[in-house]
Amino acid sequence: MASLAATFGRGAMTNGWTDIKNTDLVFVMGGNPAENHPCGFKWAIEAKKNRNAKIVVVDPRFTRTAAVADIFAQLRAGTDIAFLSGIMRYAIEKKRFHEDYVKLHTNAPYVIGEKFQFTEGLFSGFDQTKAEYDKNAWQYQADPKTNAYMVDETLQNPRCVFQLLKQHVSRYTPEMVEQICGTPKDQFIKIAEAVTSTGNPERVGTILYALGWTQHSTGVQIIRAAAMLQLLLGNVGRPGGGVNALRGHSNIQGATDMGGTFEILPGYLKTPTGATQTLAEYLEKGPPTTLNKQSWASMNYWQNYPKFMVSLLKAYYGRTATKENDYNYALMPKVDGNYSWMYLFDDMYRGSSTRAGGKEPGPEGLISFGMNPVGTGPNSPKMVAALSKLKWLVMVENFENESATFWKAPKEYGGAAPKDIQTTVYQLPAANFAEKDGTFTNSSRWMQWKWKAIDPPGQAKSDQEVLARIFLAVRDLYRKDGGALPEAVLAIDWGYTNPYAPDLGEVLKEINGKALDDIKDPKDPTKIIKKKGEQVDGFAQLQDDGTTMCGNWLHSGVYSSAGNLAARRNNADPLGLGMFHEWAFSWPANRRVMYNRASADKDGKPWDPTRPGIVWNGEKWVGDVPDIKPDSPPGQFGAFIMLPEGVGRLYSPVLNDGPFPEHYEAIEAPVDNVLHAKVTSNPVSKKFSTDKDKYGGRDQFPIVCTTYRLTEHFHYWTKHHINGRLNEVQPEFFFEIPEELAKEKGIANGSKVKVTSARGSIVGPAVVTKRILSMNLGGKKVWQIGFPIHWGYAGDPKHAGPLANLLTPSAMDPNTWTPEFKTFLVQVEKATGENV
Amino acid sequence: MALQGLEIRRSSASLRGGGTGLRKMATVAKYIDTSTCIGCKACEVACQEWNDLPNAQTSGPQHGTYQTLPTMTANFWNLIKFREVETQDHGLQWLMRKDQCMHCDEPGCLEACPAPGAIVQYVNGIVDVDPEKCIGCGLCETGCPFDVPRYAQATNKMAKCTLCVDRVSVGLEPACIKACPTGCLQFGDKTALLEVAKHRVEQLHGDGFAQASYYDPQGVGGTGVITVLKHGDHPEWYGLPKDPTVPTTVSVWKRVLHPIGFVAMAAAIFGAIGHFMAFGPKKPKDSSRETGGEV
Ligand code: SF4
Ligand code: SF4
């Protein structure tokens, strides 16, 4: 999601599932929605049946989605940037992009400072020793006279974004794409032709992707390339368009929104660091600065940052947070260094940490809440070894999974003998999704309330009760015994009716926010818009003076004085565009298509009147909930209100690995980078260096391997026998092996195969298939194989199988630290008595 | 399952039904658009659940396929058939077709069945087995051009898809239809669904599948399952026979015996002996698992 925020301003699916029915072209890459999102995929089928939309699929394998596609091409796993850059080049060269849109709604005309350069695979600002970029080298050129952004509306200035982009992608010719991706040139051109057919006002296309893009050492930049392509084609903000991240868990969007990762607080506010000791210092770093002083200004919505943060502090600390004490900002943990998943486990394994500068001991304990690190982390032997170093491990889970039983992992995971492991494991049985109420926030950003269906079995408790009881017990200990900084815990506001098991409706109200004092109308201070104690109607009413509280500004509006809008179930669709404004609540502000100002031209007329997003009627914007000040006339503000530029970023100077995407080989790759052999993989991607972090070379491991899911299974759960039917319809682990490779190796259907990476080996039956072909990379023949992830050693022993992540590497994207699950190298052999 | 409330159009080895006095009722059908089926198997699971069928012992990957079982069984009536086919014009195709009883207008199973009332065709076209009357002789298998009916050793009865007649008769759609996430399955009056099929076929022609057509074979009087095929000229790629008809041995034999309702019982015995003479003792399909090959 980092790439979407860096390009458009918000990190979420731009449109929504039901909106896909409005499209003319569904471009699926880095995802397999027919397999992994079959219910949502019906909207693609609707578009196909009702609008004659075409489905285009590019994937390392011929997938279930490919089975119903109009065009399919195979590419080598991990080479998506080359493919997408090739399409951008094609769009520019053949003038198949939406020029008016590009001039109006993107930073194509913006001039970039002289310091930005790209040579031999490296962007300027590279620090060899730290393997990091200094982003100051990538900044915009300010106009010397006005100090505003310098722009060239004609797109001719050689330093404007458009020209720089044109030059950057010029290397990705169809021949180059063929050589890098292994996709035959004619197939690539056919796809480029289809995708760029939407680069005009009449047509619109959507891109669907999922973890097949995210999980690479270049994952964020792959998605960046897609987002840029959609900007070039003018497909962002329009019904039927967008870059649509398909979320794999029912509430993963909600988890991210609520600050699911260490570097963010709810609503994507930043986690404070040691560098900002006071609220004033923190707030100064919060909103991005803008050079925009033109009439076409940016709303730069983040200028409201102080309102969101102060309201959040009021939600955290209640009455004790006052203006005088900086709303208890001092009590917030200041987080220095990297506490992401991969780093935590590295510290755990090494038993020490250098994150915050000096050497500290590694973590002593872990609370794993609805997580299965051994199953889902890469390089499972390292995960097993890391957990063995803990004093205690608390698993809050529905089932006893691989992590709870790590101490008795089979020998191929390389763990110590159970008697030598001193970790105390506590298993707290948790209620599952049907045994508690609450909301799911789906890919479409719809917060949908759900009602508990049945009571949890036995001693299982809801998540909020588990958390509340731990919190209250810890607070009691601090009260009784004191300790370091007890105020940080004691000051927390816990005013729930039932403190031991807070009602989730009450929590949702807190997330929405309320007035703590009478709120006056800014236009007419004699009027009161919200009385003290009333729920606010949305984030526009939040204040920075402590008179409002709000648990997550982005979700504000979900539980207003009109009640719990997430519980709405009215499927009326008066606009006929699948917007369903009275079904649940779609953040932000119940808007269904984000950046919808870009669905209209400079005068506020829709690019396509048959599919309007919003329309300027002379007084205000009508249609969807406008993503712009509702009464601001066209021309006043740019369409991308969360970005300081106010326009979509074809050039984005904020990510850690460059303002433009560049093709880099995976950390384990079968060939060198043909564009720049010296900088073959992402120069700022991250790896680890313990004895458990092994990376394989192409001599020993010549075959490209990827991992994926099956529609018949649910994560690592199915083997716990939640439903025998699912094990029935896809009973066991397997490898998918291309026919020709199988022949070469003497492998038949069902015969046992041994697949080995630098991390270990797994054995399983082969499914020999025509659906994966060999590739010709500039004369070198390269193979790909793949296998699904759903098995492991926990659960019903009848359905046990190898953990996919026994083979995957601990290499990461430098922006999100997401592991490279989707591309690594292996060797394939027929399993015989001796080698197993 | 003998259903109250639905009148019977035809019945095995008896004169019941077959003409006069029947309430007019539209023939129902299942529409399957194989060109938008994603092979997700929701329909397989829904069928198992609704009909309370025991789990099958499966080992898909061992056969080199995503297909759950090599063929349908007495406890598995709805099977997605997966097949990889390389074509001249359209490259690799991964074909997925939902296989089940076709609910023929002229059901060979019913024709072949010697037990009175064991196989019936309701007035809405649904073909169903009444386990109380089925004698487990397996002759229906020989009459079916689609290889559908299966002998269940445990019950000594034949079993197959009922088109969820228990649901349909109370106004619900079949379980598979309800479960299908893509809408490639539909249920309703056959005449209306034929229009849907025609429209979709036209669309496929426009998409360059010149041979696309829908499968409603007239050799068995048409079927209660309309299947849209991108490659209509190659039904065998989907595991469908090209021009199915009821085997002549069955139809001739039936024409002789059909009017003589009162000797139906004798016919059943004759049938069973006949089956023995022709094929040897009945082997339950369940246990003779076929491997790989087609799937
Ligand atoms: S498909 Fe076979 S079992 Fe079904 S009605 Fe036709 S003949 Fe009978
Ligand atoms: S449920 Fe529908 S899409 Fe899924 S396999 Fe069955 S027919 Fe195909």
The number of distinct β-strands of chain B equals 11
Give the end-to-end Cα distance of chain B, rounded to a whole number of Å. 31 Å
Q: What level of helicity do the residues of chain A show?
A: 10-25%
Shape by Cα distribution of chain A: globular
Strand proportion of chain B:
15-25%
Mean pLDDT of chain B: 85
Task: State the low-pLDDT regions of chain B, or none.
Answer: 258-295
Terminal CA distance of chain A? 41 Å
Question: What would you report as the Rg of chain B, rounded to the nearest angstrom?
Answer: 19 Å
Q: What is the highest CATH level, the class of the largest domain in chain B?
A: Alpha Beta
Largest sheet: spatial strand order of chain B: 9-2-11-10
Please write the CATH class name of the domain at 2-250 in chain A.
Answer: Alpha Beta
Low-confidence stretches of chain A: none
Structural description of this entry:
The complex is a heterodimer of chains A (836) and B (295). Chain A is 22% helix and 15% strand. With 836 residues, chain A is of the alpha/beta class. Chain A contains 22 helices and 35 strands. Chain B is of the alpha+beta class and 295 residues long. Chain B folds into two domains: 8-245, Alpha-Beta Plaits, CATH 3.30.70; 249-291. Chain B is 24% helix and 18% strand. In chain B, the strands form four sheets. Chain B has a four-stranded mixed beta sheet with strand order 9-2-11-10. In chain B, strands 1-5-6 form a three-stranded antiparallel beta sheet, with no helix packed on it. In chain B, a hairpin with a 3-residue loop joins strand 3 and strand 4 (91-99). The radius of gyration of chain B is 19 Å and the shape is globular. Chain B starts with 7 loop residues before the first strand and ends in a 16-residue tail after the last helix. The chains are: A alpha/beta (836), B alpha+beta (295). One iron/sulfur cluster is lined by residues 37-43, 80, 98, 179-180, 182, 184-185 of chain B.
